[in-house]
Design goal:
Shape: elongated
Number of domains: 1
Strand content: under 5%
Radius of gyration: 31 Å
Helix content: 55-70%
Structural class: mainly alpha
Largest sheet: 2 strands, antiparallel
Order of helices and strands: HHHHHHEEHHHHH
């Protein structure tokens, strides 16, 4: 009565069970958790990720921003930055009719050109700034019967587009270089386990930066930002501003309106491509051979 049942060696049964439970708990505390049912990482794996590999994952996520910028730029360039869409949306045909007849460089006959010719000329400019197609100084405009009416670009315009081509080339080289570094990071980092940020966290952080940048542009003024960038980027003495009455190029583009439309389209496509790349990287992180040994079940 009042005495515990004794086991072998005089140890109480209750004490033995308690010790067994403690021993099992201690073993469980050292166990490495595997992936959760939701497909993500459990607490132990998250700790591993944050302690050793989160910065590499963030670098890859930042690199993917530039990768998506390059890919989305090339995708839009393939379709002339959706010029046919903006041609209708911005009323460029009426714009050409109005200012073509008022051209002060003796090119009033540009009003005889057709919308298809305007699209061809814009496409030729896109090709030219990418170092392809007909040389810019050899572009001509034709009437509806295909008869050549005159040279499309003046010398200052050709010089400006060549400056743009040089800028595009440098930016694309930088973009592809960052792309190569990002791919190398993924391959090297994959040997130790890929640990990118979550899609929601990455898009939220990047979205905040985009909104802040947009707010700055809104406060300063889009036209002021556009002019300021041109003055900063292009060398002094290199004309970059052309009046509609003097420039068929500016008239066909309806600049700078079309640049705003293209920039917005590029931003949207860039964000979509970035989200897809980041989601792909997250899927890659769940492939066993790309996961850290501590995170494999």
């Amino acid at each position: 009565m009042g005495l515990k049942k004794m086991g072998k060696g005089g140890k109480g049964v209750t004490g033995t069970r308690r010790a067994a439970r403690i021993d099992r708990s201690a073993k469980g505390a050292h166990a490495v958790p595997g992936p959760s049912r939701a497909g993500g990482f459990r607490a132990g794996a998250t700790t591993q990720c944050e302690s050793g590999r989160r910065w590499a994952g963030r670098l890859v996520a930042v690199g993917l921003i530039f990768v998506s910028l390059v890919l989305s730029w090339h995708a839009l360039a393939k379709v002339d930055f959706l010029y046919p869409v903006w041609y209708s949306a911005l009323g460029i045909e009426d714009h050409v009719s109005h200012y073509g007849a008022r051209n002060r460089q003796g090119r009033h006959d540009f009003v005889l050109t057709e919308p298809a010719e305007h699209r061809r000329l814009f496409g030729a400019i896109v090709e030219g700034i990418h170092g392809r197609g007909t040389p810019l100084d050899q572009l001509v405009y034709r009437d509806r019967d295909g008869i050549v009416l005159g040279s499309f670009l003046r010398a200052d315009e050709v010089g400006h587009l060549r400056d743009v081509a040089a800028l595009v080339e440098k930016l694309l080289i930088a973009g592809w270089s960052i792309t190569a570094v990002t791919v190398i990071l993924v391959l090297l980092h994959g040997r130790r386990g890929v640990c990118p940020p979550t899609l929601v966290r990455a898009m939220l952080g990047y979205g905040i930066l985009v909104v802040l940048a947009g707010a700055v542009v809104g406060l300063v003024g889009p036209q002021e930002v556009f002019d300021g960038l041109h003055e900063w980027i292009f060398a002094s003495g290199h004309p970059w501003f052309f009046y509609y009455e003097d420039s068929l190029m500016t008239t066909v583009m309806k600049a700078p309106d079309i640049f705003g439309a293209i920039a917005a389209t590029w931003l949207v496509l860039h964000l979509i491509v970035y989200a897809l790349l980041l989601a792909g990287l997250r899927l890659l992180a769940n492939i066993p051979k790309f996961r850290h040994p501590a995170e494999q079940s």
